[in-house]
């Protein structure tokens, strides 16, 4: 059973993968300009009062950001309140020590506002790029997550595994001023990933990108049961889902669909996905689906309902979608921060406490 959600304490964020977008003349925007646009989007997210801005890591032509921490540092230098972090960092093909150093440096630049969301990565381009075997997919993440958890203590580390050199009483710098780097683990929905996250005592970020969000409730319950069995205090649960806000439901769906469809086709070409139909898209944008696409009122009601159902403490909307323009995304961010979030808080505040 989920706990009552407190309207004032829930956090609202945005995520982007730095998708290569389309210029007004229909041509592609350069990757360099996309990165500059992502910085502007992060600055606007701070201005409209959002809690978090996340940037994903990819190593392919259609996503411009391969070094999220560098982009986030630029955003941190131009913002005041918003937390900045990865969404996600592919820990399996990176070095945990360097990841900690980069994000503790970001934490210094942002005056304590850095976060990192660690994941195995649903895209695999980074594995051959950095010399890792996909056959080691599981052991790479398990060992590196274990080491990263040790590094979070910010004390000398002694560690030994099979995926990198051992450490013996090794200190890692810079440390954070607070002594704590906020770290989440991104989970796609396997029970093993849920239990692994709990066993390391870390908050869990659910990636809900298709189907009914309520189907993830058993994973939230499993996460809580794992902490109870470990006799450890529960950590926070968040959720990440795609979305787009416009003046009306029809306007939002009509503008978002072609970009989302083409992105789905491009990614799905190598994964054997069938083409996405408008009927399927509309089903995902309905109250029962995973896409938060519509007017501020429609999106707010859907967020409030699923936040309440799952008992999460943060909702992050993935606001970019393939070639969707920078101008459209800026409008989306403004509506999300100034219209949707206040409505969600009002709706959650009106929910009666569970008996």
UniProtKB/TrEMBL annotation:
Keywords, A to Z, come to: Monooxygenase, Oxidoreductase
Q: Which InterPro entries match?
A: Bact_Lucif_Oxidored (IPR050766), LLM_Atu2307-like (IPR022290), Luciferase-like_dom (IPR011251), Luciferase-like_sf (IPR036661)
Q: Which GO terms describe its molecular function?
A: monooxygenase activity; oxidoreductase activity, acting on paired donors, with incorporation or reduction of molecular oxygen
Family matches, as SUPFAM superfamilies: Bacterial luciferase-like
Which Gene Ontology CC terms are recorded? cytosol
Q: Which stretches make up the Luciferase-like domain?
A: 23-313
Asked whether the keyword Oxidoreductase is assigned, the reply is yes
PANTHER family assigned: BLR5498 PROTEIN, LUCIFERASE-LIKE MONOOXYGENASE
For this entry, the protein name equals LLM class flavin-dependent oxidoreductase
Q: The organism's lineage? A: Bacteria, Bacillati, Actinomycetota, Actinomycetes, Micrococcales
């Amino acid at each position: 059973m989920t706990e009552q959600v407190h309207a004032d304490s829930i956090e609202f964020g945005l995520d982007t993968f730095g998708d290569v977008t389309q210029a007004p003349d229909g041509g592609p925007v350069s990757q360099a300009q996309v990165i500059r646009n992502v910085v502007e989007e992060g600055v606007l997210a701070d201005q409209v009062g959002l809690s978090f801005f996340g940037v994903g890591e990819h190593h392919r032509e259609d996503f411009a950001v391969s070094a999220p921490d560098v982009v986030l540092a630029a955003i941190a230098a131009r913002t005041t309140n918003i937390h900045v972090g990865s969404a996600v960092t592919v820990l399996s093909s990176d070095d945990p020590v360097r990841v900690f150093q980069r994000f503790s440096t970001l934490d210094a630049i942002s005056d304590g506002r850095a976060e990192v969301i660690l994941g195995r990565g649903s895209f695999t381009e980074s594995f051959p790029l950095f010399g890792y075997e996909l056959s080691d997919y599981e052991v790479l993440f398990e060992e590196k997550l274990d080491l990263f958890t040790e590094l979070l203590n910010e004390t000398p580390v002694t560690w030994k595994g099979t995926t990198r050199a051992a450490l013996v009483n090794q200190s890692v710098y810079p440390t954070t001023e607070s002594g704590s780097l906020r770290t989440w683990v991104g989970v796609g929905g396997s029970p093993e990933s849920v239990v692994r996250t709990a066993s390391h005592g870390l908050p869990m970020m659910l990636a809900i990108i298709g189907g009914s969000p309520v189907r993830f409730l058993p994973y939230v319950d499993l996460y809580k049961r794992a902490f109870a069995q470990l006799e450890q205090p529960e950590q926070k649960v968040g959720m990440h889902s795609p979305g787009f806000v416009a003046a009306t439901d029809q306007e939002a769906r009509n503008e978002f669909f072609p970009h989302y469809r083409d992105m789905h086709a491009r990614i799905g070409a190598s994964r054997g996905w069938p083409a996405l139909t408008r009927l399927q898209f509309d089903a995902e944008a309905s109250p029962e689906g995973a896409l938060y696409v519509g007017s501020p009122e429609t999106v707010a009601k859907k967020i409030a309902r699923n936040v309440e159902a799952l008992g999460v403490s943060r909702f992050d909307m993935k606001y970019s979608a393939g070639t969707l323009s920078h101008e459209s995304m800026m409008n989306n961010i403004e509506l999300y921060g100034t219209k949707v979030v206040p409505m969600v808080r009002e709706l959650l505040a009106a929910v009666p406490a569970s008996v």
